[in-house]
Amino acid sequence: MVRSGNQWRTKMRMLCLGVVFMSLCACSEVIRQHGYIPPQEDLEALLVGVDTIDSVEAAVGRPATSGVLRDDAWYYVGSRIRHYGARKPEEIERQVLAISFADDGVVENIERFGLERGQVVVLSRRVTETTVRDVTFIRQIIRNFGRIDLGEALGG
């Protein structure tokens, strides 16, 4: 009988140690990654004013979010959430990468934004030199020749 009593105590001690161990593990910090931001190396390979929608898609993939009315901008969103025990999950980092395209589908801007103390902060920005194009009067006339429908102009 004494022997079975010692075995019972040993099993109870092991059970108590297991419960204590599980309780300590439940309080450990867990960091989860939500969303996708392309790596910096892939972004550095993109050239503003040269790359197109197709080459961006091939290099970094298509995002889950794009422009609201037109597909003139792509938005990659990533955040890190900390879960700690029974506490409410806390967002510890958020980044938004915006790649905007000109009307012809060429990359116009690449901007990275972060969230610091509830404020949006620009982390990096690669923008075309100017959004105002230097178009002279002669260039406008030459460019408009391609838009003229000769059949309509001649009354045919």
Walk me through the structure:
- Strands 1, 2, 3, 4, 5 and 6 form a six-stranded antiparallel beta sheet that branches.
- 7% of the residues are buried.
- The chain is of the alpha+beta class and 156 residues long.
- The protein is rod-shaped.
- It has five helices and six strands, in the order αβααβββββαα.
Summarize the structure.
Helices cover 33% and strands 33% of the residues.
Q: Mind telling me the C-alpha Rg?
A: 29 Å
Quaternary structure classification: single chain
**Biggest sheet, open or closed, and with what strands and sense?**
6 strands, antiparallel
What is the averaged pLDDT score? Answer: 75
- Count of DSSP E strands? 6
Q: Any chance you could write out the topology, listing elements then pairs?
A:
Layout lengths: L1 H25 L2 E7 L4 H5 L8 H8 L4 E2 L6 E12 L5 E12 L5 E10 L2 E9 L9 H9 L4 H4 L3
Antiparallel strand pairs: 1-3, 2-3, 3-4, 4-5, 5-6
